[in-house]
Amino acid sequence: MEKVLLAINGTMPDTKAFKYAVDLCMRIKADLKVLQVVRPHDLGGYISKLKNTANNAKRLIEGSMMAATFAEAGEHETANALMDEAKRNISKLLPESTRAGVSCDLLVRTGDTNKEILDYVRDNKDIVITVYDTPRGNNPKATARQIKNDLKSITKGLTIPVVMVQAEV
Q: Highest mean pLDDT range out of 44-48, 70-74, 102-106, 140-144?
């Protein structure tokens, strides 16, 4: 079965991007793969932001970060348990895919977003389109520059369409 990749550059998917990806999956009868990429140097900043989020979102992100930490330390069994918890939490946080009948799997990686997207699509030949959930930041000019550079890098390396979804300001 064909799959749509929702690539999240940061800690949380934007509702608009997630709904777009789910609607697309419904139209083309595809499964949804959510790839959340968190840059290692951003993890500290995300922890402080978590204090202001809902409990489900908080558990999702904390689980993702802890899983990445355990995986890097070689504690793969613990990392796998935390990733399972993250998957359960995103199902609670974003139930639209379940209601729409779209199968949704979450993958969390740490590293460079562009490289992780390119590697994932190259390794998974059943991905037919990538929906890119752009990062949101406090500095709109820096964020706009980053988005432009990211898209250029991603589209240069992929042979499938990339749709960019920006959060409403």
A: 102-106
What is the reported pTM?
0.68
Token output for 166: 């920006």
Task: Give Cα separations from 33 to 36, 41, 52 (angstroms).
Answer: 10, 25, 27
Answer whether 119's CB lies under 8 Å from 103's CB.
no
**CATH number assigned to the domain comprising residue 11:** 3.40.50.620
Strand partners, 127: 3
Distances (CA, A) of 55 to 89, 128, 158: 9, 33, 36
Query: Which residue range is the domain that position 154 belongs to?
Result: 3-165
Residue 13 CB contacts under 8 Å (≥ 6 apart), including other chains: 6, 34, 36, 94, 133
> d(Cα 93, Cα 9) in Å, to the nearest integer?
18
C-alpha span between 76 and 82 (Å, rounded) = 10
Condensed to tens digits (0 to 9), the pLDDT of residues 62-118 reads 555 555 555 555 555 655 665 565 555 555 545 667 677 888 888 888 888 899 999
Domain count, the chain: 1
